[in-house]
Amino acid sequence: MTYQIVYSSQATRPMTAADLEQILVDARAGNEARNVTGALVFVDGVFLQILEGEEGVVRALMASIASDTRHDTVTVFHEAEVEAPTFGTWRMAYVSATPQDMSAWAGLPGTATVDALLQDIGRDPQRVPQILASILRHLAG
Fold first, then answer.
1. Which of the listed residues 10, 24, 52, 75 has the most CB atoms within 10 Å of its CB?
2. How many helices, marked H, and strands, marked E, lie in the chain?
3. Percent of the chain scored above 70 by pLDDT?
């Protein structure tokens, strides 16, 4: 079984393209060493990330992220064992999205802010599988 965590966090400072690239380089190298897969969505200063792997490893990585000074307001939306990793071929896929993209992925009407969207998802965690499938389709497309 694969353990999966989906969380969001607010960037504590503005992220440049170079900052995001460095985060991805570091994440991909670290995830390769840990045998972790996943995806990172960044929109309007907010990270939405999916981590998948061995439960102890994923939980330890999540604890590290929660204490990372680049993240604020870390919120876990979903954590569970899954049959197989959703993002098994990506050490850390990356998707740049708009709030409208994320709303569509969640099956919600257009949302003015990412915060409002995340609040909607938090109230209805059953939307998480739909979001993951939509992100995967976006990456494959």
1. 52
2. 5, 5
3. 98
Spell out the residues 6+ positions from residue 76 whose beta carbon is closer than 8 angstroms to its own.
5, 6, 7, 62
Three-state SS for 49?
A: strand
Query: Residue 34 forms beta bridges with which residues?
Result: none
Contact between 97 and 41 under an 8 Å Cβ cutoff? The reply is yes
The angle, 0 to 180 degrees and rounded to 10, between the axes of the packed helices 114-123 and 99-106 is: 20
pLDDT, position 130: 82
Residue 139 parent element (H or E): helix 128-140
What does R_g of the chain's alpha carbons equal in angstroms? 14
What is the tens place of the pLDDT at every residue in 80-122? Answer: 999 999 888 889 999 988 888 888 888 877 766 777 777 877 7
One-character DSSP codes across 50-80: EEEE-HHHHHHHHHHHHH-TTEEEEEEEEEE
**In whole angstroms, what is the distance from residue 23 CA to residue 121 CA?**
25
Do strands 2-11 and 37-43 pair parallel, antiparallel, or not at all (unpaired)? unpaired
